[in-house]
Task: structure prediction
Amino acid sequence: MNTTAGNSKAIRFMTWVCFVILFCSNSMHATTISSRGGSGNWSDTAHWSPAQIPTTSDSVIITSGNNMTISGYNAYAKGLNVQSGATLTNKNTLTYALNLYGNLKVDGTYSCGGVTYETQVGFYGAGSHICGGGTISTTYNCYFCIRANVSIDAGTTTSGAIDFILYGAVTLLNNGSVTSISGAYGISFNGGGGGTWTQGVNSYFGGHGIGGPNSGTLDASASGNTVEYSYSNASIYQASPGYYNLKISGSGNSPVLAGNIQVLGDFTIVSGGMTASSYIISLKGNWYNYGTAYTNAGQPKMNFNGTGTQTIYKSSTAEYYNDFTLSGTSTVTPPLGGLEVNNLIINSGATFDMGSASLLEVYANWTNYGTFIPRTSITYLCPYVGYTDTVYNSHGTETFFNLGKLNPGTTKFKSNIKVTSTTSVSGVLGFSIGAGTVDAGNFSDTISVAGNWLDNGTFIPGNSTVILTASWASRYISKPSAPETFYNLINSTSAWTTLYYSISCANNLVINGTEMVQNGGSSISVGGNLSIGSGATLYGYAQLITLGGNWTNNGTYYCTTGSQVILNGLGTQTINKGSGTETFRKLTVNKSAGTVTLNCPLNIPDTLHLIRAQIVTTSTNLLSLNNGTGLVGGSDTAYVSGAMGKYGNTAFTFPLGSTALTTGAYHPLSITAPSATTDEFVAQYYPTGQTYGTTRADSIEGISSCEYWTLNHTAGTSTVSVGLNFNTNCPVQGNANISLASWNGTTWLDRNGTKSFGNWPKGSVTMTSPMSVSGLVPFALIYKQITGGYAELKRKLDGGYFIVPKGTLYFKFDDEYNSGSPHLTYQLYNGSRQDLSASLISYDPASSNPVTIYGDNRFGLDMSTSGGALSSGYYVLEVTNEKSEKRYLRVKMP
Result:
């Protein structure tokens, strides 16, 4: 439709109204012809006074009590007045017409047509009026042909099948109430002249709508006026500059939007429906829907652009729109049954207030530059399969009461999300993914949820932080099909949070508030740090926690039989507790890099698995195992660096070592079983020479200068035998007469150890008899004194010899090289140069290639004569190093 607008429109309306009142109250000019004699035909002179047929210069009055009929005759009048109590019936066919060159005033009854008649009335008088308080109606099609500017006065009512046809550039101003039902169009424009139908203030037009050539203008913007479309297939065109109040009524097929429209007042669907065809309805007032709203041919795209409060009313269930845009400064409230839309856009200055509505469903993008007030509603995000829709709030955070995700498509968050619900709506309490995918992406900083978290679809956390904030009795996190994956998860509730199923946090898990509970089968995996805040409790029960970062407990961690913590991060991990001792029922350390550092005491009552990596402790931040606690593992890559405690009456090997060593770090200390379950021992290994003192028993030739151990008997009086393990970082110098000693406060005492060599130069020495360990006692490896001493190898033989005491030859080898393969080979020859080493000599350790270290090495060689092969006499020992350099020693068997 063409559009017309002008600043003088309101003044023009008032001028016309005043003119109409004056004109309709004055008597007509020129010749006045009145009806007389009861009923009659317009063409019968006997029924006129004076007795003549009216012409275009005559003003005609149908007087009260007279009934006149026009039939088969062209009738003319300058003006026509049907008085109260009078009737004029027009029964012409379209061959004839009633032609008026002035006003039509009806205070009685003007009726057009009959059952089969189509009549027409031509209005030729410029500035003429249709007025009066009577009845202007039709029982069949009647055409009011407007060929000059005409006004319908306020208080004037027309009804029935009257079509108004505007010919050329004429204007019809409707200040009355026009109803055109069952006609061809209601309003149509003809002649190609661009006519204008103007609705006056508080006027009404209802009927079939607008038809014919689309070259005219409908101006329905005046305050309070209403246009109502009631014809099944009427086309709703745009009005210029818009409709004020627009209504849809009728039944059967629906009126059809023929383009985008603007409604300045209210839009009402009285009955029936409307085919929207996805055009835009811009509305400044309220929406009332008492019908079916629209058909499947297309939902309207609604643009609420008012300035006050705009209400959406639907008589039952939810209202449906295509796109839903709030572009004004108004507050829009949906119907009680809720609202379902495609795209939702809230522009700056606009407010969408859910009020008492319980449901909002959005099937495409959510874009909010204004304000959304969820009240106590549930919002469903419902993208279809193959679509990725977004939720965006320009202020940074979008707030919902309950939030649900439906349909198999993807919803991507581009803002912070806050879900505040404390009560259930439509079965949803909190945040629920019923189907499809929710992608937090890299745009969402936080997703704050006061209710439950239920995921029956897929949640992609991106870099988001999920914050649980409920303050009511209890709630849960549930994902039945697989572990729920978060990036950061913060439990900041003052309520129970129950894990029905497993969760995984790629970054951090923070437990504040009150409690988080692991139900059966609900493991926790955290790639970053796990923190339990002050006053909070993590109930682990018999479940698994896998942690890649630090453990910090300023509250309570409650674990039962079967509870297990696995530390598997790549970097250094720490165990922290605000006060007291932390307890892990089971602990597994399996790290490909880094260490685990205790910043608090740690107790393990069940099992310690040392698979890979080191636990770093101190005497204050002590790792202690209970009576019966199992130990699995211990190696050069898995040990305790620092102090470690053990309670109980079972034999135990402390898996000690030191992170200061780059090779050969594992140096366990073992004890035999104490006699009481209340005994406690604390052991530690040191990769340096002892500094307690040099005074030693006579049987001790030397004390290791590169390592020592301490064993502290902190509770109990049991005696135990102690064993020490040596490694490649500080190998013993040979294997002859290795033993161990303890420091008694003044002297190193020989404890007569039994040697064991599993993989030379690794081995162990264990006391042959138990001892009383009182308080802290240092232990070290020693070399026992040898009767007769050690023989010195020569670069070449001389006249001397060494007498072998008691069948064992002890000799020194000073290795001058620090090479990668320091091995020795040696042979023993008799006086006839016969090699006796292969079958008659045993070595300790049992190897034909003893290993040496740089410097002093000492070996023992069994030369007993129990087999009778070595008789008394002289022999030559030849020793060859890795450089094929030889050393010699002449010995005498007594």
In short: The two ends are 134 Å apart (CA to CA). The first strand starts at residue 31 and ends at 35. Residues 648 and 678 are 6 Å apart (CA to CA). Residues 1-29 have pLDDT under 50 and may be disordered.
